[in-house]
Amino acid sequence: MDHFQLRDGTLHAEDVPLTRIAEEVGTPVYVYSRATLERHARVFREALRGLPRVHIAFAIKANPNLAVLNVLSRQGFGADIVSVGEMKRALAAGVPAPDIVFSGVGKTRAELSEALDAGIGQFNIELEEEGVALAEFARANGKTATAVLRINPDVDAGTHAKISTGMKENKFGVPIDEAPAIYTRLAALDGLDMQGLALHIGSQIFDLGPIERAYAKVGGLVGDLRGAGHKIDRVDLGGGLGVPYERGKVPPTPADYGEMVARVTKDWDVTLMFEPGRVIVGNAGVLLTRVIWVKPGVVRPFVIVDAAMNDLARPALYDAYHDFEAVEPDGDRMEANIAGPVCESGDTFAMGRDIDAVQAGDLAIFRTAGAYGATMASTYNSRALVPEVMVDGDRFAVVAERVMPERLIDAEHVPDFLND
Ligand code: LLP
User: Fold this and answer.
1) Domain span holding position 313
2) 293, 277 Cβ separation under 8 angstroms
3) What are phi and psi for residue 182, nearest 5 degrees?
4) Most buried by CB count within 10 Å: which residue of 193, 221, 302, 306?
5) Collapsing DSSP states into helix, strand and coil, what is residue 364?
């Protein structure tokens, strides 16, 4: 459920007509609903209610906007980060350092050391050398780093290849067969407090089967490591739950997921950690856009909107589907291609789609754009960086400004030597 609904013929975000946001902020613009964010956070938390010890760290990569993080931090969510930039955002948004988990396959030495200084709660180690380097930094600073070892369970998540992470040919985690030996060597290092395991097999997962198989494999490893005398206190189960981009395609609910987790982990006796991203923010955001032209096409018309692949990259990158709806639909339909102004054929949001009939000047939205939307935006074609707005009841605020080309040009320099 989300709070982007038609009221008196006009799409609203909570109590704010999207026409008002377009007038005051311009388009394209991302619009988030605070009530939807809070609802999703609550639903996810409640789905895990039956589990004994739980830590939820929102995967910041899905939406790192400070206002969004602030809302989620107030809901008791920690943060899953993959860079020091994300760490700075989490801290700036009020997430306590001990609630921050540092994932990521390529943490630099500088990042490890900065995160250690900041006192974050957990490092998810991706390879043995990373653990060794972290232990060295910790010893040199008289500290102990709390860490878990990320396992690659070699399970196909059944999602798009570019967002699958849990197969042996993927770059993530250590092979499950090698994990006991690596864990044993890391656990022996001063400066490192190895507390358990982590995994994450992919994103936009629609089938709980592969997740369950991966968790079961890790459960086996928990037993083996304990049998070898290791303390296993926590397991980080990652993120990955899918969201409904297309009507009629319904993913497992957080409650289904919670029941599966309870069943698989019932004998583990650990703190279970979660890193949800998309499922929390995906449907809490839309991309509001204006139709520039309806261009006649040989096969069907092209609806050319003022949002483009630089604002919402998912269709170009993953062939992703985002629902398109007129802000003031008149009930008529049309079959059209939807494209942006960028000079690439890949700047296409949909081909041959049955949509609300629109004309030049009309407003429309792409739904389910709150996850991996604004954060993946660029300024390609020297377009402005897309702004973000948060709605709360009948109020709204710009929570990220439109960064105009002038500001980007100011940050560039033509060196004097070009005059030589
Ligand atoms: N934890 C780790 C270690 C991850 O790599 C990810 C996502 C998550 C948690 C959160 O996964 P989620 O719950 O959001 O599925 N840009 C792509 C998605 C990339 C996901 C990367 N990792 C897209 O737009 O579909």
Assistant:
1) 4-32+282-410
2) no
3) -65, -45
4) 221
5) strand
Helical packing angle, 179-187 and 208-227, nearest 10°: 50
Q: What total of structural domains would you count in the chain? A: 2
Substitution candidate for ligand 1 out of 55, 203, 206 with most atoms within 8 A of CB: 203
pLDDT digits (tens, 9 = 90+) for 274-310: 999 999 999 999 999 999 999 998 999 999 999 999 9
pLDDT at 165: 82
Site to substitute for ligand 1 among 278, 311, 318, most atoms within 8 A of C-beta: 278
Together in a domain, 76 and 218: yes
Residue 287 · residue 325 · CB < 8 Å: no
Write the CATH number for 20: 2.40.37.10
Share of the chain above pLDDT 90, in %: 94
Judge whether 326 and 303 are in contact, CB under 8 Å. no
Residue 143 token pair: 């500290």
User: 19-41 pLDDT, tens per residue?
Assistant: 999 999 999 999 999 999 999 99
Neighbours of 42 (CB within 10 A): 13
Residue 72 lies in a domain: yes
Mean pLDDT of 258-278: 98
211 C-beta neighbours (distance < 10 Å), count: 28
Q: Is the residue at 419 inside a domain? A: no
CATH number at residue 140: 3.20.20.10
Does the CB atom of residue 59 touch ligand 1 within 6 A? yes
**287 lies in the same domain as 191:** no
Does one domain contain both 19 and 48? no
- CA gap 414, 404 in Å, rounded: 19
220-257 pLDDT, tens digit per residue, is 999 999 999 999 999 999 999 999 999 899 999 999 99
Q: Are residues 111 and 255 in the same domain?
A: yes
279 Cα to the center of ligand 1, angstroms: 10
0.85 exceeded by pTM? yes
Task: Work out the angle at residue 67's Cα, subtended by the Cα atoms of residues 65 and 73, and round it to the nearest 5 degrees.
Answer: 100
Which residues are CB-neighbours of 39 under 8 A, at least 6 positions away?
Answer: 1
Q: Which helix (H) or strand (E) holds 238?
A: none
Is 343 an active-site residue? yes
